[in-house]
């Protein structure tokens, strides 16, 4: 069965059939119902591959991430995939656990994708130039290019305000009376970690403090547990608070502090994270964290892709940054708690 057969049965033009099965195309509700009913009777299914040969658009978006273990990404990527699919795009997921995405993105280009979304991988200037030359938009999600060049200026990015988030967490801990504040870093070369640590250092400096001790978790659960053991297991004087660069690692730190080292949270040590994944609200963690505005970030990614795909002229790249929100729960001592303790001491 072809679209011409459907048009004959529905008593409409073939172009009306084509518009009915084209996401976003203009067609009346009455015509759409007639076409869909005729297609159902005939068992007609549009051939996406054939359509892509005609339109030169595959309507496929390549989505690249390093791993799904980090609890922030499954929920965020689900929202992104749902939004793209609602707009008539298909998502092709690629997982790359190497530091550089060039080889994998080269493979993605063979699928004639219309656009690429990169989450936690590194894109070289050369590959960014290849994508730009082929008019394939690239959007970085939850990250930004570490080293800008003429080629990477063609790449858009969407992320939360990591610097402000780090600063807000520093102020929160300092205002609660903490003085021995530790930091557990993620991937030390990633833009997310660099920005969060920079904001955290700046916030502590504004309160007359500095990072008292530092470990590296590399955004990995087991490595974060090791960092917690090093920071809290052998030190003669332990930190009284710790900022962990992601919620995923913060859970590992909290488990280690409680079940291996016998420390109480927040009585002995306050723990704060970054992301506000759903598990952060579970009573067993009740993690104080900095919430990333996932839905606005997803909407911005799709908007950037659509604009670059549909504008006749090349749309200039954008660096979109959204403010987040400090979410206070029970894993960290609050300023009010400090004041009550001081009054009891008097």
How would the blueprint of this fold be written?
Elements: H1 3-10, H2 14-20, H3 29-42, H4 48-55, E1 60-65, H5 72-86, E2 90-95, H6 102-109, E3 115-118, H7 125-133, E4 138-141, E5 156-160, H8 162-175, E6 181-185, H9 191-206, E7 213-216, H10 221-232, E8 241-244, H11 247-260, E9 270-275, E10 288-291, H12 294-310, E11 319-322, E12 325-327, H13 335-345
Parallel strand pairs: 1-2, 1-3, 3-4, 4-5, 5-11, 6-7, 6-8, 8-9, 9-10
Antiparallel strand pairs: 10-12
Helix pairs in contact: 1-2, 1-3, 5-12, 8-9, 10-11
> How many independent structural domains?
3
Q: Give the mean pLDDT.
A: 85
Q: Report the principal-axis shape.
A: elongated
**Tally of DSSP helical segments:** 13
End-to-end distance, in Å? 87 Å
The parts where pLDDT drops under 50 for at least 5 residues are: none
Class derived from helix and strand content: alpha/beta
**How many strand segments?**
12
> How does the major sheet shape up?
6 strands, parallel
- The third-level CATH topology of the largest domain is Rossmann fold
List keywords for this structure.
Rossmann fold, alpha/beta, 12 strands, elongated, 346 residues, 434 Repressor (Amino-terminal Domain)
Summarize the structure in short.
44% of the residues lie in helices and 16% in strands.
Question: Can you offer a commentary on this structure?
Answer:
There is one protein chain. With 346 residues, the chain is of the alpha/beta class. The chain contains 13 helices and twelve strands. It has helices at residues 3-10, 14-20, 29-42, 48-55, 72-86, 102-109, 125-133, 162-175, 191-206, 221-232, 247-260, 294-310, 335-345, and strands at 60-65, 90-95, 115-118, 138-141, 156-160, 181-185, 213-216, 241-244, 270-275, 288-291, 319-322, 325-327. It has a six-stranded parallel β-sheet, sandwiched between helices. A six-stranded mixed β-sheet has the order 7-6-8-9-10-12, sandwiched between helices. α1 packs across α2 and α5 (72-86) packs across α12 (294-310). The chain is elongated and about 85 Å long.
């Amino acid at each position: 069965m072809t679209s011409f057969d459907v048009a004959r049965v529905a008593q409409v033009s073939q172009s009306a059939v084509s518009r009915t099965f084209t996401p976003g195309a203009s067609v009346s509700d009455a015509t759409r119902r007639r076409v869909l009913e005729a297609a159902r009777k005939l068992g007609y299914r549009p051939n996406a591959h054939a359509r892509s040969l005609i339109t030169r658009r595959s309507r496929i978006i390549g989505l690249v991430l390093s791993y799904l273990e980090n609890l922030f990404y499954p929920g965020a990527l689900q929202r992104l995939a749902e939004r793209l699919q609602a707009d008539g795009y298909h998502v092709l997921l690629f997982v790359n656990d190497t530091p550089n995405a060039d080889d994998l993105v080269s493979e993605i280009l063979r699928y004639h994708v219309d656009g690429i979304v990169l989450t936690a991988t590194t894109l070289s200037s050369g590959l960014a130039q290849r994508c730009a030359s082929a008019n394939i938009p690239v959007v970085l999600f939850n990250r930004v290019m570490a080293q800008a060049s003429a080629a990477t200026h063609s790449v858009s990015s969407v992320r939360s305000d990591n610097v402000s988030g780090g600063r807000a967490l520093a102020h929160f801990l300092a205002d609660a009376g903490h003085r021995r504040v530790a930091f557990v870093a993620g991937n030390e070369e990633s833009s997310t970690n660099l920005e969060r640590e920079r904001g955290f250092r700046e916030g502590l400096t504004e309160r007359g403090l500095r990072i008292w001790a530092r470990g590296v978790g590399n955004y990995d659960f087991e490595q974060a547990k090791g960092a917690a053991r090093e920071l809290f297991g052998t030190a003669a004087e332990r930190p009284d608070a710790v900022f962990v660069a992601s919620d995923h690692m913060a859970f590992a730190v909290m488990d280690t502090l409680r079940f291996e080292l016998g420390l109480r949270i927040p009585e002995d040590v306050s723990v704060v994270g970054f992301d506000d994944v759903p598990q952060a609200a579970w009573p067993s963690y009740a993690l104080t964290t900095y919430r990333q505005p996932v839905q606005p970030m997803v909407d911005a990614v799709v908007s950037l892709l659509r604009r670059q795909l549909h504008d006749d002229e090349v749309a200039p790249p954008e660096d979109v940054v959204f403010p987040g929100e400090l979410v206070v729960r029970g894993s960290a001592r609050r300023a009010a708690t400090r004041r009550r303790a001081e009054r009891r001491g008097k």
